[in-house]
Write a structure and sequence with these properties.
- By secondary structure, this protein is α+β, with helices and mostly antiparallel strands.
- It has one domain (2-87).
- The protein has helices spanning 18-25, 30-42, 57-70; strands at 2-3, 6-7, 72-76, 83-87.
- The longest helix has 14 residues, at 57-70.
């Protein structure tokens, strides 16, 4: 549905700790900030677990099969220390 060419917005509520609530109350446009933060976080989700932080047994099986077939290993970036995937060229 649309209203004057815009999509109908949905209100979603969530609980926060009192300290975070106080910080958010001081923001000039809380809704815009929260929307922006959520969208930014969604851009950084793990493509495998989709932000859950853990693989299901089925996903883990597919992952293990993939890394075995494609010669991929998990390593550490020498420059920044981040965990990275590296293709084994053996």
């Amino acid at each position: 549905m649309s209203y004057n060419g815009r999509h109908k917005e949905e209100v979603i509520t969530f609980k926060v700790e009192p300290h975070l609530a106080e910080i958010l109350k001081r923001m000039p446009n809380r809704s815009r900030f929260i929307r922006s933060a959520i969208l930014s976080s969604l851009d950084h989700l793990c493509p495998l677990c989709q932000g859950l932080g853990i693989l299901s047994p089925e996903q883990r099986g597919h992952w293990l099969e993939f890394i075995e077939r494609h010669g991929v290993r998990i390593s550490e970036c020498e420059e920044c220390g981040s965990v990275v995937l590296v293709r084994d060229m053996q």
